[in-house]
Each structure stands twice: as structure tokens, then as C-alpha cells.
Amino acid sequence: MAWKTLDDMDLNKKRVLVRVDINVPMENGVVTDATRIERIVPTVDHIQHAGGTVILMAHYGRPKGNVVPEMSLEHIAGTVAEVLGWPVVWANADYRDAVKELEGDEILLLENLRFNPGEDANDPAFAKRLASLADIYVNDAFSAAHRAHASTEAIAHLLPACAGRLMEEELRALENALETPKRPVMAVVGGAKVSTKLELLGNLVSKVDTLVIGGGMANTFLAAQGKDVGKSLCEHDLADTAREIMAKAETAGCKILLPADVVVAREFAAGADNEVVRADACPADAMILDAGPEAVAAIAAALETSQTLVWNGPLGAFEIEPFDAATNAAAAKAAALSKAGKLTSVAGGGDTVAALNKAGAAEDFSYISTAGGAFLEWLEGKDLPGVAALKG
Ligand code: ADP
Ligand code: MG
């Protein structure tokens, strides 16, 4: 590994500044889902048990360099203490004094980093100020690693730096999926639009053996092949781009799998009357809302012969039944193969995670990334500043 982990660091009697993502949803001052706090427990426990003192730093919302009282981390300090099981002291601006006053097992939680304009600006002076609080820097916020901010990038060059447990888990899963995967590798890319996933598609065709294109974006590819997609969601202006991606795939030896049959309906509504037609036979007044059974069978067959799967984007309009059928069936197949140890499966993306949870398949996937934007940029093949900085 090009990056260090907590196991490489001597943490005893050290002050350890840990960048975390505890951007949890709140309603009326109450944290409604503490998952993000739960996920940093292994890192915090490891440092505390190794004799170190944890100083947590995080962002909350997008205050854009202003002090926005509703976005103060003071509001969640109590929940952080409860979930972590360690006493937590919240620190406003006088970080240095707060560090000096820490007693026993106490953890320090710094105020929302983004209240300081230096955070988003990756300002070296702000990074220096943060670094002066500690001996070691740990980044446990993969989900913030696609941004070059003072607490994710600049600071990593000022202190001995390493990945926390959550960051480590995520990086390993992602490296196993695309950098050093067991082949054949397959990707499933679905979702609404090609335009939001152009770079992702471009990167994947050069890395995977089979690329399944589904969801609304498959319509753009079908249309680019001269097929009539009726009233389907389709970016007709991207026909050339779709053809370029198909040509690039052919050169790279990547097989593109488009749906052979589709489910069409006249309205975008739950329980709408629907029928299965060939992919080139969408009626002029209908729209494609899901992949058909033959398409699902082809995906299942491809999964059977693959060793690794990367998935982003649902295969249909999964929010409205019965147009979740293809997504559910493909997810169940991937989950079963993963559970049986025959497939390494990694999935991510806001709607994708929701769809896999809805399908009851998420638990059996090898890894579900909750990182959103950072996961997508990684799929695009970009170097994430927060990860690159850890590599030295
Ligand atoms: P993610 O958030 O996982 O990256 P996207 O945001 O790209 O995924 O795509 C999810 C959206 O794509 C969902 O809202 C879903 O309804 C929509 N979608 C999928 N297939 C179709 C389709 N055939 N027609 C219209 N919308 C679709
Ligand atoms: Mg989305």
C-alpha cells in the first residue's frame, strides 16, 4: 500500500487530529441517522486504546466560510459522545487552550471547519494552525477526499499522516474492484442521464471486460443505434458521444451490454399499465422505464462468469413499482453470488445505495460505499486530493 494506516503509527501519548465525516441528518435539533458517527468508532477506539488523544475535525453543511449557528457542531456533540462512548468536549475558536485543558479520556471536537474560509480554500495558514494542535494526522473521511481542503489536503503534508480504519476499508475495497481486480470485471452503470456520467463511462470502458448500461442512460445509447425510444428520457444531443463511447469500448475489448428488451408505459407512475417490448419497438407514445426479463437474464449470465462487479446507477425507475423489477433481480443475483464467495461486488451512489437497500441486497454485497461524490470521482479515474496527499 502506498498509504500508511493506524498500524504504522506510534500513537501512545500523541495528540491525533482525525478528519471525519459526521455530516449527519438532523431534524429539529435531533440527529435522525447516526450511521456516519457509528462508522468512525473503530478509528477512535483504536487511537484511544493505544494511548493517544483524539481531536476530531469535521465539516457540517455548506456555510461557505461564514459562522452559521445552525451548522455548529456543538449541536451534535452530545450524540457524538453517546455513539462513541467517550467523553466529548466541543471547542469553539480557542482550539489551543481547549487541547491543553483536555483531561483523561476526553475527546475534543473542533467547531465546523467550514466556518473558516481557509478550509474550502485549502489555505496553508489554516492548515498550519490545525496542524499545530497535534502530532499525527489521520484522514478517515473518504467521502470528503475528492475536495482539496485544508483538513483533507494541505494538512496531510504538515504532519505524519495515515488513513483511518474507515478510509482504509474503503480504499481497499475500491482498489480490489478496479485497480487490482480479479478478472473478468464487470460494471453496471445505470441511472437517469448519460451527461452526468460521461467521464465515468469513458474510464470504465478502458478498465472492465463487460459494461452493462441500463436505466435512462441506456435510452440514449439505443437512440444512438438508430432505435426509436418514443417518449423515453433520452439525451438525443449526446448520440455522437454515445457512439464514441461504444467505439472506445470496442477498441479496448470491453463488451457493452444494452437491454434487448424493455418495459414500457404511458405514464411515469406507480402501477402504470406496462408491457415488455423489444428494445427497438418502443411505441411512439410510450416510455422505457425498466429493463425487460431477457435483459435481466443476460445480466445474470454475465454476473455468473465475472469475478468482480462495480455498480453505480439503478437499471430502471426503481422508486415506482413495478419498474424496480430489473434492479431488484440483478441486485439479488449479485448479492447471492457475493454471499457464495463467487463475486466481489462494490456499489455506490446515492440512489444506488437506496435501490440496493430497497431490494434487500445491500447486506450481501462485498462493499457498499456511502461516499457519494468521492465514489463517483474515483469511478471516473480521478486522483482524489485527500487520498493522493496521504500517499506523500
Ligand atoms: P446514483 O444516485 O446512484 O448515482 P442516478 O442519480 O444517476 O444514480 O440515477 C438514479 C435515477 O435514475 C433514479 O431517480 C431513477 O428513477 C432514474 N432512472 C433510472 N432508469 C430510468 C428510466 N428508464 N427513465 C427515467 N428515469 C430513470
Ligand atoms: Mg442520484
Percent helix, as a range, is: 25-40%
What composes the largest sheet? 6 strands, parallel
**Record field, number of beta strands:** 17
Can you list the strand order of the major beta sheet?
Answer: 5-6-4-1-7-8
Helix and strand composition category: alpha/beta
Number of helices: 15
What portion of residues belong to β-strands? 15-25%
Could you tell me the radius of gyration in angstroms? Answer: 23 Å
Bound molecules: adenosine-5'-diphosphate, magnesium ion
| N/C terminus separation | 12 Å
The poorly predicted ranges are none
* Overall morphology: elongated
**Average pLDDT:** 96
Keywords:
392 residues, binds magnesium ion, elongated, binds adenosine-5'-diphosphate, alpha/beta
Describe it for me?
The protein is an alpha/beta fold and 392 residues long. The protein has 15 helices and 17 strands. Helix 8 packs parallel to helix 10, helix 9 crosses helix 10 and helix 11 packs parallel to helix 12. The longest helix has 15 residues. The protein is elongated.
Q: Topology, please?
A:
Layout (H helix, E strand, L loop, with lengths): L14 E5 L6 E2 L2 E2 L3 H4 L2 H9 L3 E5 L16 H11 L3 E4 L3 H7 L5 E4 L6 H4 L3 H8 L4 E4 L21 E3 L1 H15 L5 E5 L8 H8 L4 E4 L1 H10 L14 H14 L2 E3 L3 E5 L8 E5 L8 E5 L1 H12 L3 E5 L12 H15 L4 E5 L1 H9 L8 E3 L3 H7 L5 H6 L2
Parallel strand pairs: 1-4, 1-7, 4-6, 5-6, 7-8, 9-10, 9-15, 10-11, 15-16, 16-17
Antiparallel strand pairs: 2-3, 12-13, 12-14
The chain binds adenosine-5'-diphosphate and magnesium ion (MG).
The site of magnesium ion has 2 residues, from helix 13.
